[in-house]
Amino acid sequence: MAKHYDYVIVGGGSAGCALANRLSADPSTSVLVLEAGRSDFSIDPLVHMPAALPFPIGNRFYDWKYSSEPEPHMGGRRVYHARGKVLGGSSSINGMIFQRGNPLDYERWAADPGMETWDYAHVLPYFKRMENCLAGADAWRGGSGPLELERGPANSPLFGAFFEAVQQAGHPLTDDVNGYRQEGFAPFDRNVRHGKRLSAARAYLHPVMDRKNLTVHTLSTVTGIRMQGTRAVGVDYLRGGKLKRTAMAGEVVLCGGAFGSPQLLQLAGIGDASDLAAVGVRSVVDLPGVGQNLQDHLEVYVQYACKQPVSLGPWLSKTRAPRIGAEWLFFKSGVGASNHFEAGGFHPQQRPRRLPQPHVPLPARRGALRRVQAGLGARLPGAHRPDVLRRPRQPEDQEQGPAGAPGHPVQLPVHR
């Protein structure tokens, strides 16, 4: 007989871990988390050592290793998409850079009918609630949340040269890319604490794993959603790839990410009816948006050879690897304790398009920003608004005043 839970959360990634924490805070509520990947064992250095981040990415034991179909606008090339296959999801294998969306993107979304509460004034309290910014809390940054955010030291001579170079190119510095002014260059916040990766699992899930009303199963792949009419009432899943199980739920919450969640919806008959009919799936709810409109930001690695021993290069020799491992294992310090993407910034890609006046003082320009990450010996430029890059320039495109010019301040709403 299938067990019943108030909530079944499909996916133990960033969203799933946060929801499991919040929903299980009510002791009268039962919560089941089903994660297809393995546990993020504390003894696994590939997950927890920040500098080891290149190893789980592309490894089938940690990564779903998704690949796109041939992209017509990229000469038929396929784009690789790393997605975490481990408790904590992609937050357990990513580069640990913590960055919010651009404030004016939220203003743009809020301009659409029915989306008014997505403006920056409404989402800012949630951003603040989730974080403990160790550089200092203020009107824009939180100081008591579960995500403790270290600021990258960026004290290598290479970072000093980087900051000098961007200013020579006409770009400003900023105090905080997640604060009052995103446009500009600065040391980055990162999900690293005490020399270890601070994944969503470590921040949200592990601190509450002893709750009696919370059950977490890893190596549990959901194969289908049980439907009664148009309502989801449970899921079928495999434990360890063999044992067939069913969990009934008052509410099914899909947290399988940009690929996993649409796939499960479509398998359950929720999606574009014509697409489902083409592969023999009976339509339950004709919802054309499912599986559509995915955007990702391409990045280009630009690497340099240093004439002086100021990069990571000298540390990559086999003779130094034991020292790196020992320093991190016993002291959580040294080269292994950093993700090495310690600084970077945002700058406009083109003249921006006119948008409504923001509801909070926002200094960023009104267009897409290009992110540049800086590592020791590499620069990674990437477009964060590919939809803007595809849009032809409009006659009304224009600068909206000098960078740093604020809008009309209002009292920010409080959400508890």
TrEMBL record:
<dbReference type="GO" id="GO:0050660">
    <property type="term" value="F:flavin adenine dinucleotide binding"/>
</dbReference>
<feature type="compositionally biased region" description="Basic and acidic residues">
    <location>
        <begin position="384"/>
        <end position="396"/>
    </location>
</feature>
<dbReference type="GO" id="GO:0016020">
    <property type="term" value="C:membrane"/>
</dbReference>
<dbReference type="InterPro" id="IPR036188">
    <property type="entry name" value="FAD/NAD-bd_sf"/>
</dbReference>
<protein>
    <submittedName>
        <fullName>Choline dehydrogenase-like flavoprotein</fullName>
    </submittedName>
</protein>
<feature type="region of interest" description="Disordered">
    <location>
        <begin position="376"/>
        <end position="416"/>
    </location>
</feature>
<dbReference type="InterPro" id="IPR012132">
    <property type="entry name" value="GMC_OxRdtase"/>
</dbReference>
<dbReference type="InterPro" id="IPR000172">
    <property type="entry name" value="GMC_OxRdtase_N"/>
</dbReference>
<comment type="similarity">
    <text>Belongs to the GMC oxidoreductase family.</text>
</comment>
<dbReference type="GO" id="GO:0019285">
    <property type="term" value="P:glycine betaine biosynthetic process from choline"/>
</dbReference>
<feature type="region of interest" description="Disordered">
    <location>
        <begin position="342"/>
        <end position="361"/>
    </location>
</feature>
<dbReference type="Pfam" id="PF00732">
    <property type="entry name" value="GMC_oxred_N"/>
</dbReference>
<keyword id="KW-0285">Flavoprotein</keyword>
<dbReference type="GO" id="GO:0008812">
    <property type="term" value="F:choline dehydrogenase activity"/>
</dbReference>
<feature type="domain" description="Glucose-methanol-choline oxidoreductase N-terminal">
    <location>
        <begin position="84"/>
        <end position="107"/>
    </location>
</feature>
<keyword id="KW-0274">FAD</keyword>
